Amino acid sequence: MRYALLGDIHSSVEDLKDVLNDIQKHAPDAELIGTGDLFECIISKKRAPFERFTKLDDVMLYSDELLDMLSFPTVRGNQEERIAQITDSDEPLLQRIRMMEERIAIGKSAQVIHGHQWEWGGDPWMPVLPETGPDLIFYGHSHDSGLSIENQVEEIGFGVPYSVTKGRTFVNVGAVVGDRAWVLYDPAGTVTFMKVMD
Ligand SMILES: [Mn+2]
Question: Of these four, 30, 46, 97, 185, which has the most CB atoms within 10 Å of its CB?
Fold first, then answer.
């Protein structure tokens, strides 16, 4: 079973359409898993502590077309956390957002997490990678595709399979919004960074 990882969609219908078509083209057998920030919260981080809302319409961007495409399991991102934090309503979509897990396991040694839970800093903006945990972690949040093996940042290209069996490996899946990037994971031991080409 292969996996297609995708996230940081930020409610971009057009970019998501292109990525889903790309997955269909290159890996129609792959199981989809989301890395979080599927939705765009329109209330800023600054305003959020002081405001409360009773309708998702006032808090996030979404449409039926978007929701129809978001049928795969996903971890929650900081956008979903903010939406849940500032909205009080009985809309089923909000219940669904509240149910999103922080982590999803893939097999015995791989895990998916959005990554905002870690400390971030520097330029390029990078997370302080946790020293313990699974051998293979997929994350997002920074909208940069990237690969770290044993705390070493590796050069990557798109469409090239990289081994994930050389030590503790962190895969930054990149963003659907703007970049139309995603990652194909083959549990036989490789990841391939993918990007929709025009
Ligand atoms: Mn994020």
Answer: 185
